[in-house]
Amino acid sequence: MTELHLWLRHEPRTTERRTPVVPADARRLVDSGVTLTVEESPQRIFPVEEYEAAGCRRAPAGSWVTAPPAAVVLGLKELPDEPTALTHRHIFFGHAYKRQPGAVELLRRFAAGGGALLDLEYLVDDEGRRLAAFGFWAGYLGAALAALRHRGRLTAPLTPTTKDELDAVLRPRAGEEAFTALVVGALGRSGRGAWTAFRTAGVEATPWDQAETRELDRPALLRHDVLVNAVLATSLVPPFLREEDLDSPVRRLRTLCDVTCDVGSPFNVLPVYDRTTDWVEPVRRLRDEPPLDLIAIDNLPSLLPRESSTDFSAALLPQLLAFTGSRAWARCLDRFHQACRELGVRQGESRHD
Length: 353
Description:
By secondary structure, the chain is α/β, with parallel strands linked by helices. Helix content is 31%, strand content 14%. The chain has helices at 23-31, 48-53, 103-113, 135-150, 163-170, 189-200, 210-214, 218-222, 243-246, 305-321, 327-342, and strands at residues 5-8, 35-39, 57-59, 72-74, 89-92, 116-119, 181-184, 206-208, 226-229, 255-258, 284-288, 291-295. A six-stranded parallel β-sheet has the order 3-2-1-4-5-6, sandwiched between helices. Helix 4 packs parallel to helix 6 (189-200). It is globular.
């Protein structure tokens, strides 16, 4: 059996503090016979020295481009624009299978180099359930930011923190008015995280899931003060909010947080905005009168980098330990090839099939 070589890359996005593998789990990988190279990264929540102490090799940031051909490059968010031809197998969230902006270009880079994308969003078990996800923390942060914004206490730019510190700010203060909140997708990971954060904020959120969205009551949705969307659609469904809803006379809604940030996808259930927000400007005003504010940050869990990374790494570890011969990773590869066919990306010979 070929020894697995994982290459943990530096994240080029300056606000990405998370890691898919924490040092404690890196030691377990090394002890099991996996070679793990870890790139230096100034913003990663865990310093590279902790990985070295766990038995990992150290490499400069961005050196994955010259990694051995059999190495599997591990990350979380988008790759840099270069090189244009990707020769390795890459594990990360590619956001490229639902015709998102840049999807075809990314898949063409893999086709050009004979590499492959093993998209973490499609790492699922035999029943189609996600095996590793940041969903709970995305929902928790989304609801927390929405509650703070609605109460006039959200400050920018956003900075990473800990859950204890966040909760101390999130708890209601004496004299603050109560507000109503709705979590759509309440039974999923993100929805549970959002509902939990609202509880910390002293708010009993209304939970909606498939039963409530199958025949959507938009007036009821609009009568809530705060909405957190935690639904990531995989097929065409009627949108939860439309442009005309924002000008409805029954709209009480003042703060909207889209945890899924599926902007640009034809499956987007909130097609009322065309670009995400970020840590520097976390809020965008969609309507002035009555006001409606949008929060749509696509790396929310990075605001709690230690907690979210530790949870994610614990879920990903058994999948990495079983990498060779794993049906779950084989499904990821099949889904990559399927996406290339669906988007018209012609593939040449791949060294990774």
